[in-house]
Automatic annotation (TrEMBL), chain A:
<protein>
    <submittedName>
        <fullName>YlzJ-like family protein</fullName>
    </submittedName>
</protein>
<dbReference type="InterPro" id="IPR025619">
    <property type="entry name" value="YlzJ"/>
</dbReference>
<dbReference type="Pfam" id="PF14035">
    <property type="entry name" value="YlzJ"/>
</dbReference>
From TrEMBL, chain B:
<keyword id="KW-0378">Hydrolase</keyword>
<dbReference type="Pfam" id="PF00574">
    <property type="entry name" value="CLP_protease"/>
</dbReference>
<dbReference type="InterPro" id="IPR029045">
    <property type="entry name" value="ClpP/crotonase-like_dom_sf"/>
</dbReference>
<dbReference type="GO" id="GO:0008233">
    <property type="term" value="F:peptidase activity"/>
</dbReference>
<keyword id="KW-0645">Protease</keyword>
<dbReference type="GO" id="GO:0006508">
    <property type="term" value="P:proteolysis"/>
</dbReference>
<dbReference type="InterPro" id="IPR023562">
    <property type="entry name" value="ClpP/TepA"/>
</dbReference>
<protein>
    <submittedName>
        <fullName>ClpP family protease</fullName>
    </submittedName>
</protein>
Length: 74, 245
């Protein structure tokens, strides 16, 4: 199916509101991260939002790493 | 063999936690630890990737740069006395005009030296962000699409809508011409040219052409950008109290 329209895709096919809830921004060790909730009460890092390039060298802060929800602040 | 023995010796001391950490690292990332480095750095790096998100949250599968993440970081960079310079890396398709201009204005008003590098693409509203820094680089293969602004969604068909759109476009044009060496005539010519993009108005400017038009300062990558940033930091330190630029 090809739709010839100027409307953006997300207006034509809106995603479920629950999808938005899956990802959120939290601070862990004072560093902002985009995370998603995984089973067993942990957050999985999706994106490291820090501007400090050294935060990207630590495997603990790499995408895919997990940390307990209780360790996150705000 | 060497590695195995090393691991064995370590696991004897602290058997459980060590093996747990190692397996977690392998299952989650497919990699083991990278040596840790000095946490303090005088140069911070801001990445503008994917779509620049505006007031409407984009679906989670979109890769976005959110202004509510970026703006506090720019404020923190301005505030932290240990940070002396900022490197901005762009690989964006563009996005919301207001959010893009907000980030560009924040970068332009930062008191610390800033250098931008366009990698891959710095399209549409990425253009003002690229030129907002003190010095801008573009890689040889990177491109920037310059096109008129668009409005999606419900629009009232009255002349005022057009005027509003025209005013918004004027803000972008003014910002770009103020912060780069391109003339307004040339920028508008690129913006309204026909036959360059498929069924669209505008121009796709490639690395060296962007430099030729005066939009970007130089063709180069990360090493040139870092060298320039260090030079600007030195200049700022040397000329403290004096006018620079």
């Amino acid at each position: 199916m090809i739709l010839y329209t100027v409307m953006p895709e997300h207006l034509l096919f809106p995603v479920d509101a629950a999808e938005y809830e899956k990802k959120k921004m939290v601070y862990y060790d004072g560093i902002p991260f985009l995370v998603q909730i995984v089973e067993n009460g942990e957050y999985e890092i999706v994106q490291n939002l820090s501007t400090n390039p050294y935060h990207f060298l630590n495997a603990k802060y790499a995408p895919g790493a997990r940390f307990p929800i209780s360790a996150a602040t705000s | 063999m060497e590695k195995e023995r090393y691991f064995q010796a370590e696991t004897e001391e602290n058997a459980e936690t060590k093996t747990d950490e190692a397996t977690a690292a392998i299952t989650q990332l497919g990699q083991t630890n990278i040596p840790q480095m000095e946490p303090d750095t005088n140069i911070h790096c801001l990445t503008i990737v994917g779509q620049i998100e505006g007031h409407v949250q984009l679906p989670p599968q979109n890769k976005t740069t959110k202004y509510e993440h970026v703006i506090p970081q720019i404020v923190a960079i301005e505030q932290n006395p240990k940070i002396e310079g900022l490197l901005v890396i762009l690989n964006t398709v563009g996005g919301d005009v207001e959010a893009g201009l907000a980030i560009a204005e924040m970068l332009a008003s930062l008191s610390k030296p800033t250098v931008s590098v366009v990698l891959g693409g710095g399209h549409s509203i990425g253009v003002p962000i690229a030129v907002s820094c003190n010095y801008s680089f573009i890689t040889e293969t990177a491109t920037m699409t310059i096109h008129p602004i668009r409005l999606t969604g419900l629009v009232i068909g009255v002349p005022q809508t057009f005027e509003y759109l025209d005013k918004m476009q004027e803000r972008v044009v003014r910002f770009v011409t103020k912060h780069s060496n391109i003339s307004e005539e040339k920028f508008k010519e690129l913006m309204f040219s026909k036959g360059n993009l498929t069924r669209d108005i505008g121009t796709n400017v490639i690395g060296p052409d962007a430099v030729q038009y005066g939009l970007i300062d130089e063709v180069g990558g990360v090493s040139q950008a870092m060298a320039k940033l260090r030079q600007l930091i030195e200049m700022k330190k040397g000329g403290e109290g004096k006018m620079i630029q």
